[in-house]
Amino acid sequence: MATALQNLSTYDSSGFIDISEKRFGLVVAEWNRELTDTLSAGAYETLLKHGAKPENVFRNTVPGSFELTLGAQLLAQHEEVDAVICLGVVIKGDTKHDDYICHAVAQGLTTVGLKYNKPVIFGLVTTNTLEQAWDRAGGQHGNKGVEAAVAAIQMLGF
Ligand code: RBF
């Protein structure tokens, strides 16, 4: 499985740039709140661990993952925001809602990143079951919030 092979929750930070003056926007979906809170905590702690100042991390919530795109745009448009990290959990149900949401978010976040020339990180956990989601929110497949923060730091050094 790809996530088992590529798990950035264990990563090499030796090449990270100094992020002490960088400003980060965190956009967190409220659907599956317990899970997204865990992702958010992982991202926040990772940014601080690598030198970001707490006052330079702006956390905002949106109702659900579908709204991550607009939340990202509202933050990315500010000149002082260097990177935006978007976090959500979409669990497959009986209908195709997950497909529509995930495709819209992937497309939307790509567009925002390209429009503002900033890292806009896709921290959307998309799973078939709740158990698989917990596996990726601090469980056996790491914490995808940590990995999203790492991706943001890496892209700032690009
Ligand atoms: N938002 C999520 O972040 N995760 C979900 O698993 C999720 N499932 C949804 C299922 C249905 C049937 C609907 C209508 C919405 C769901 N949403 C979910 C909320 C969605 O991202 C968005 O907030 C709402 O559709 C309002 O635009």
UniProtKB/TrEMBL annotation:
Which residues participate directly in catalysis?
A: H97
Q: Name the species this protein comes from.
A: Hymenobacter setariae
GO terms for biological process, alphabetical? riboflavin biosynthetic process
- The reply to whether Electron transport figures as a keyword in the UniProt entry is no
Q: Which GO terms describe its cellular component?
A: cytosol; riboflavin synthase complex
Q: What is this protein called?
A: 6,7-dimethyl-8-ribityllumazine synthase
Name the domain of life this protein comes from. Bacteria
Q: Identify the InterPro entries for this entry.
A: LS (IPR034964), LS/RS (IPR002180), LS/RS_sf (IPR036467)
Task: List the keywords (alphabetical).
Answer: Riboflavin biosynthesis, Transferase
Residue sites binding (2S)-2-hydroxy-3-oxobutyl phosphate per the record: D94, T95, R136
Question: Has the keyword Transferase been applied to this entry?
Answer: yes
Q: Report which reactions are catalysed by this protein.
A: (2S)-2-hydroxy-3-oxobutyl phosphate + 5-amino-6-(D-ribitylamino)uracil = 6,7-dimethyl-8-(1-D-ribityl)lumazine + phosphate + 2 H2O + H(+)
Membrane-spanning parts: none
- Please give the family membership noted in the entry: Belongs to the DMRL synthase family.
Binding positions for 5-amino-6-(D-ribitylamino)uracil per the UniProt entry: W31, S65, F66, E67, V89, V90, I91, F122
Which pathway is recorded for this entry? Cofactor biosynthesis; riboflavin biosynthesis; riboflavin from 2-hydroxy-3-oxobutyl phosphate and 5-amino-6-(D-ribitylamino)uracil: step 1/2
Report the function annotation for this chain.
Catalyzes the formation of 6,7-dimethyl-8-ribityllumazine by condensation of 5-amino-6-(D-ribitylamino)uracil with 3,4-dihydroxy-2-butanone 4-phosphate. This is the penultimate step in the biosynthesis of riboflavin.
Q: What is its EC number?
A: 2.5.1.78
Task: Provide the GO MF annotations for this entry.
Answer: 6,7-dimethyl-8-ribityllumazine synthase activity
